[in-house]
Write a structure and sequence with these properties.
alpha/beta; Rossmann fold; 2 domains
């Protein structure tokens, strides 16, 4: 069997290396391609919400990736849940939202779940996605959300160490919970800087997403 081709679709360049690093570590046999459309995040921030035009853009991206030979698609942009669902209905290959695998792992960890994001517009759709998944499983959850936008500013300016420190500081402010979710792929590097707390698990999207894709393709 040929090595599977996985199309990664990004809204920001800072998401590329964290997910590619996870593929190199967890699934080096996969052939990874990267498609960057960096107007998505700025257009969403300007519009304030997802509209029909944005959903159609995601359908086009998914169809293009399948036409290029992808066996599966992973969107790495966490602010676009409904648009990714629209894209999923357009193609007949697996399409994974960036955080759904991580969220399922978080629900297994407990009911107190914290969402920590550096791109604040991603939080409403992520919270809705998490609550929908919990409702589907008849699970009662208590959700806390927190944004650390200064960390993303630092990362875009090339200050990776400051980015990780600001995320760790925000995680300390959140305090105790069962699961702490780092909402952007670009946040994965900060996980090791977060102070360990008894009973709190920290989840990153890239690791969970690669493991889920590998499982989907194997099945």
């Amino acid at each position: 069997m040929k090595n599977p081709r996985i199309a990664l679709i990004h809204a920001t360049p800072v998401a590329i290396e964290p997910i590619c690093a996870s593929f190199r570590r967890l699934w080096p046999q996969a052939q990874v391609t990267n498609l960057l459309e960096d107007s998505l995040a700025t257009d969403l921030a300007a519009a304030g919400s997802l509209d029909d035009a944005m959903l159609e853009r995601f359908r086009v991206l998914a169809k293009y990736s399948q036409a290029c030979g992808a066996d599966a698609i992973l969107f790495t942009c966490s602010a676009f849940g409904p648009a990714i669902e629209a894209a999923r209905d357009t193609v007949d290959i697996p399409v994974l939202k960036p955080n759904e695998a991580m969220m399922e792992e978080a629900l297994a960890a407990g009911s107190r779940i914290a969402l920590l994001a550096t791109f604040e517009p991603s939080l409403p759709s992520m919270r809705a996605e998490l609550e929908s998944l919990a409702a589907h499983r008849n699970a009662s959850i208590d959700v806390t959300v927190k944004a650390a936008p200064a960390a993303l500013t630092a990362l875009h300016a090339g200050r990776a160490s400051e980015h990780d420190r600001l995320i760790a500081d925000a995680a300390d402010e959140i305090g105790d919970c069962d699961a702490l979710l780092l909402c952007q792929f670009s946040m994965a590097s900060a996980a090791e800087r977060i102070t360990a707390r008894r009973g709190r698990s920290v989840f990153t999207s890239p690791y969970s997403a690669v493991a889920r894709l590998k499982q989907l393709i194997s099945a």
